[in-house]
Amino acid sequence: MSQFVHLHLHTDYSMLDGACDVEKLVQRVKELGMPAVAMTDHGNMFGAVHFVNAAKQAGIKPIIGCELYVCKKEDHNIERTPPEGDTYNHLLVLAENEEGYRNLTKITSEASLRGFYYKPRVSKKFLADHSKGLIALSGCLKGEVAELLMDDKYEAARGAAVVEEPKVLEISESQCATVICHPAEA
After folding, report:
1. What is the pTM of this model?
2. Rounded to the nearest 5 degrees, what angle is found at the Cα of 12, between the Cα atoms of 8 and 14?
């Protein structure tokens, strides 16, 4: 059985970004013997139900996530904060459990309804207020950590990456996602 699991993957539900058909995806994952796969489309969870149903039918553990657009301004709400000139970073977020799924649904809905400026953006504060049950990954080149590193701002990148309780997602033999917390390293 393959120990590799895609945790950053865009489907055709990622508008103008992904071309991966959900049905073909889960069949290929099954052929390769992967126990699980994540769906992390850009800024939305439109395909979550389709993905979960297809994955379960194929005997694959579905991991629901989203690659969020996190605005650099303190407030994402375009009614309170003029969005002009604002930029954003990407942040990959996975739902650890049902509470995480509900929070991710709140975050993506808020981003689309009140933070939409070219992309469905959300603020760090709103994300932090709804972060229970979520696992964040910083691996994208459009992420805050990578952006700071590319600008030779090592200490700022390290500060952006440090969290109190980093989590590692592991997929067990029984195809259940479990999370193991490790203390932050100094």
Report:
1. 0.84
2. 60
pLDDT in tens, 53-95: 999 999 999 999 999 999 999 899 988 888 888 899 999 999 9
85 backbone φψ class: left, alpha, beta (φ>0; ψ -120 to 50): left
Amino acid residing at 140: C
Contacts 24+ apart (CB under 8 A), 164-167: 167/96, 167/135
d(CA 130, CA 19): 30
Cα distances (Å, whole numbers) of residue 89 to 5, 71, 81, 169, 183:
24, 6, 18, 23, 26
Which residues on adjacent β-strands are paired with residue 181?
A: 167
Residue 116 CA to residue 136 CA, distance in Å, equals 21
DSSP letter (8 states) at residue 35: S
Interatomic CA distance for residues 11 and 67, integer angstroms: 12
Average pLDDT, the chain: 86
What mean pLDDT comes out for the span 7-29?
Answer: 92
pLDDT at position 165, please?
A: 53
What is the rounded distance in angstroms from the CA atom of residue 53 to the CA atom of residue 46? 13
> Does the structure show a pLDDT above 80 at 186?
no
Report how far residue 63's alpha carbon sits from residue 94's, in angstroms, rounded to the nearest whole number. 7
